[in-house]
TrEMBL record:
InterPro entries with a match to the protein in the record: Amidase_Cbmase (IPR010158), Bact_exopeptidase_dim_dom (IPR036264), Peptidase_M20 (IPR002933)
Family the UniProt entry places it in: Belongs to the peptidase M20A family.
Pfam families: Peptidase_M20
PANTHER family in the record: ALLANTOATE DEIMINASE-RELATED, PEPTIDASE M20 DIMERISATION DOMAIN-CONTAINING PROTEIN
Residue ranges, annotated region (Disordered): 222-272
Protein name, per record: N-carbamoyl-L-amino acid hydrolase
Keyword flag Signal: yes
Residues annotated as transmembrane: 189-214
Keywords: Hydrolase, Membrane, Signal, Transmembrane, Transmembrane helix
Amino acid sequence: MRFALAKPLLLLGPLVAADGAIADKAELVLDQVGPRSQFRPNLFNATSDLRARGILPNKRQLCQPGKVYCSNDDGYCLDSKPQCCPNTGICPTDWHCCGKLYCFPVGGDCCNDGTYCEPGNICQPVSTHFDCCTDKACTAHVANGTTISSTYGGARTVAAATTTTATVTATVTPSHSPSAPDDGSSTPVGAIAGGVVGGVAAIAIGAVAIVLFLRRKSKKKDSAPNAQPFLDYSRTPDDVADQTRPYNAPQDPQDPDKGSVHPDPTAPPQQPVIHEAPAQTLSMVSSGVWAGGIPLEQAWDLADVFDPATTMRTELDRHGYVGDVACSSAGFPLTAHFELHIEQGPILERAGKKIGVVQGAQSYRWFTFNVAGRDAHTGTTPLDARSDPLLASAKMITSSHAISKRLGAIASTGIIKIPANSSTNTIASHTSFTLDIRHPEDAVVAQVQTLCLESFEAIAKQDGKGVKLGWTLDTDSPAVKFDKECIQAVEAAANNIVGPDGWLPITSGAGHDSVYTNRKCPTTMIFVPCKDGVSHHPEEYCSPEDCAVGTQALLEAVIHYDQMRSGRKI
């Protein structure tokens, strides 16, 4: 029996290209940048000229182990981590990164409010801001929020007014058809390697989460020359119009409409969120279409959760990836399917195991709840006259957590929407939120759903005049049990590679393409540990050793399964 490695379709989540980051210091950073040949070879079917430079079509570099990726314009691979602010770009020579956001001079002190103190000075909290002094003991002399820079002589650098936004790009790399059978008589055993880490490819559907970055240069407090730039993320998008006041600056008493936020001096700098997440309320779409579980037109019509005008079809058209070959199990049948993936959780790492032999995937359902009330003024509307959907939504989310915890399940909310024109002194007119219920057993998921709906209906009648509640079921993914022979093949491989104490049986907490391939052919999965259980995030990491162990297990499991089905002696 012949088997083929099916090439994956990989959507590379949100990639951010900073527009003009520290352009005025380009001459200082170019000599720090490694040559393009230092980028790790591209494994994801980029065109040959791009692959030679190790750059994906969307210009994201894949650095060799031990090097640090910096997203400054096209991005660079560096040898030194302190030179790189991962969320912003490259710091100038003799500058370091603070909190992944700011560049400050070696010997200086980075303040939590986005400023820094010159070398020899110490950053100290002063009421609602930070200032600099030359002795740690100076904190004892700070009182009533008065500035201390003139008293203690500390040189302090603050932000200037220039603000720009970054561009966001994402690209899908095309997949290639597997080799056709020589005589048409045998069907390939598909081995799909899963996980976007360490060069291990995946069949995956991701989406673009748009992240807005705000960048500002710096200047000395007293307009001193030769100030070095740093990047400030302490402002919200709505604050762009007011380019003279950071978001966390004290309120201007002459302009109270600007609002006021008094920062915690011990809090770390605010950081932009970068997390890969599905753009639609339906998961495993490509494999679902392949298995016949999701109609093609339904998949194409799926709308972005934040932009209904953007659909999967419009994005495929925009990138030129609407192909001529039908996505179906009839057109591309598999005899079996093995999927290698990082665990996306901490179980293997905590247990000290190298391989997870996946027995199946747990059940989950996704919902969207819409809560309608009435907008009103917070100061003039008594509690008994209110119809507050945000308050009701908060109670519903809290209730879902308590119910699921009591039944040993999981209930999570990832999206909450309120009207864009909401403000501090208004009651929102309507809200919506998502609910994700999961458990290894379908019956428990159904029970959590029933109890949540009963609780939500009761909450909708509480507090003032109550609210109106509506909901939709977006995804229903029943629990899956994988094929016993496929599992046995992975167990045999695991015993051979790491021994009986080096692996454990595990149930997938997330949905994978194997959930749908299991409908059409014998299927199982192989998990390898990932650091802290983090996935779909810049901090996702799987060691080269674990990647190699997983890949070897995949190879041996496929061979073992092929020999087992062929009746040859193992």
